[in-house]
Structures are given as structure tokens and as C-alpha cells.
Amino acid sequence: MITIVTGTDTGVGKTVATAALAVRCGSGAVAVKPAQTGVGPDTPDVAVIERLAGCAVAEFTRLADPLAPDTAARLRGVEIPEVAEHADRIRELARTHQAVLVEGSGGLLVRLDRRGGTLLDLAADLARDQDVRVLVVTRLGLGTLNHTELTVTALRSRGIEPAGLVVGSAPDRPGLAEQRNRVELPRVTGVPIVLEIPGDAALVTPEEFRAALV
């Protein structure tokens, strides 16, 4: 099984969500980041996933500037792999692992290569011959209904039905918008919320993180 983890925006909690899903998939999982940008003194996403979930990880492309992969590559005048190359490498991983989790960069239509290939293109490519599900990581706050509907609509435009919504950072004390959007998100998208991750999930020990998800 290949699981594509996309988000309605950057900073919605995709990395911690990917780690949580990897824990639930068990020891045969590998988490993949096709394109990592903004790597400096901060810990890259795959290292966060590896620490929290204890699973194997892979990173295909690394760019220093905190920009979309296509933009970061153009800024420095460097060539980066095309989406089709990412798809082939993910297929190879799927042959040797029970579960492959692919974390996108930013939102669904962020360009991963210099030809305009996106995570949506990657999902569609893999879905031609693989068992693929797509999960959408979203927020509960104001603006999320529009962003989430746009993401779900884009997926359906390519014949991909989202398998579920994941709340990437659920607040301890939800306000009115957060309370109502727990109900509204499934209603307006037709996609269920399958997992909610507490906002402080990344701050606990790996042992506590894993125990909470068993």
C-alpha cells in the first residue's frame, strides 16, 4: 500500500501526521520525502518522522532555500528529478516494504520539479499500477473549509477519491470555529476525518508518541 500524505497548505502538520500513520502501519513501513526544502539548522522532516515513528525513511531531493521545490531549484539554477523519477523510486520501495508513506511539500499543487509536476501528478502516476490512497492533512480553524474543499476537488478532478482527512494539529481548547469545523469538514467535502493529532504531539517522547497511537 502506498499512502500519499498531502496538505491544504504548508505548516498544517503533515510531518507529524506521516509519523503517526507510520506507527499505525507497523514495522514494515518506510516514509518518503520526495523533495525537502529549507534544510538548514532545523531538523529535516524525515528525521522528525524517524525519531517519532522509528521507521525507515528516504529523502530524494534536498534544497537549502525554504521555498517550493521548483522555485528553490530555479533560484539556484540546479536540476532536480522529475515526478516520474520519484514515482519509479517509490515503486521500488513498495516492492520491499509493506507500507510506503509519501509526504508532499506544502499543498497538493506545489511544483515538485522544473516541468511543473506536482504531488497530484505523482499520485496519479502511481495509481496507474499501484494500490494508492491519499490522505489530506488539514486545520480546524477559519479558512479550512475553503482550502480543504479545493484540495479534495483537485484530487477528484483526476479520478482520485481521498481516503480521509487528518487534523494535523488539534487544539487543546477549540474555539467556536474549531468545534463547528469538526462537523463541517466531513459535511462539505464528503470525506471523513480519520485521525486527529494533538497540537503538542511532536513534543512528547517517541515512546509516548507511539504508545498513544497503538
TrEMBL record:
Its EC number is 6.3.3.3. It is an enzyme of class 6 (ligase). Substrate binds at T37. Its main location: cytoplasm. It is found in: Cytoplasm. SUPFAM superfamilies: P-loop containing nucleoside triphosphate hydrolases. It comes from the Bacteria. The active site is at K33. It catalyses: (7R,8S)-7,8-diammoniononanoate + CO2 + ATP = (4R,5S)-dethiobiotin + ADP + phosphate + 3 H(+). Keywords: ATP-binding, Biotin biosynthesis, Cytoplasm, Ligase, Magnesium, Metal-binding, Nucleotide-binding. Its cofactor is Mg(2+). Mg(2+) binds at T15, D45, E103. Pathway: Cofactor biosynthesis; biotin biosynthesis; biotin from 7,8-diaminononanoate: step 1/2. One of its GO terms (molecular function) is dethiobiotin synthase activity. Gene3D superfamilies: P-loop containing nucleotide triphosphate hydrolases. ATP binds at G11, V12, G13, K14, T15, V16, D45, E103, G104, S105, G106, G168, S169. Catalyzes a mechanistically unusual reaction, the ATP-dependent insertion of CO2 between the N7 and N8 nitrogen atoms of 7,8-diaminopelargonic acid (DAPA, also called 7,8-diammoniononanoate) to form a ureido ring. PANTHER family: DETHIOBIOTIN SYNTHETASE (PTHR43210). Belongs to the dethiobiotin synthetase family. This is ATP-dependent dethiobiotin synthetase BioD. It comes from Saccharopolyspora griseoalba. The lineage of its organism: Bacteria, Bacillati, Actinomycetota, Actinomycetes, Pseudonocardiales. The gene is bioD.
